[in-house]
Amino acid sequence: DMSYLFGSLSCYLPRTAAALALPVRYFCNSNSPIQIIQHEQLKQKLNNQPRQHLLIDVRQYNETALGVIPGAVNIPLDELEEALNLSDSAFRGRFGVPKAEPDQELIFYCKSGGRSTVAANLASRLGYQNILNYKGSYTDWSSREQ
Hints:
Largest sheet: 5 strands, parallel
Strand content: 15-25%
Distance between the termini: 29 Å
Number of helices: 6
Number of strands: 8
Oligomer: single chain
Order of helices and strands: EEHEEHEEHHEHEH
């Protein structure tokens, strides 16, 4: 993984970037620092504040057969930009949950942290201001929640 400047933007390029074949802009964020969340913090949020955030699993649909973090909505990374640009009613109709407000907490996870980092940067670029990245992701969650 590496960080660099792309124009005036601070960019983070995970090792998986080439494999994802996404434009560099998905890895850059200008204003909103993305915070990393750990397992215990996430578990506390899920138990104590279930409606104050939107937990998004950005793995592909077939990967969720391994399991999901309770309360998560699955929106694969390659569909995320379109999903976050849907109207509130279209988002609810497609995913069964309300669309997050720009200041509502968004928490992203994937299998091991690469795609969730891309997702967090994308959400920031789209104007979301309260973004958490569970970089331990499902691999960490499943090892601790057996």
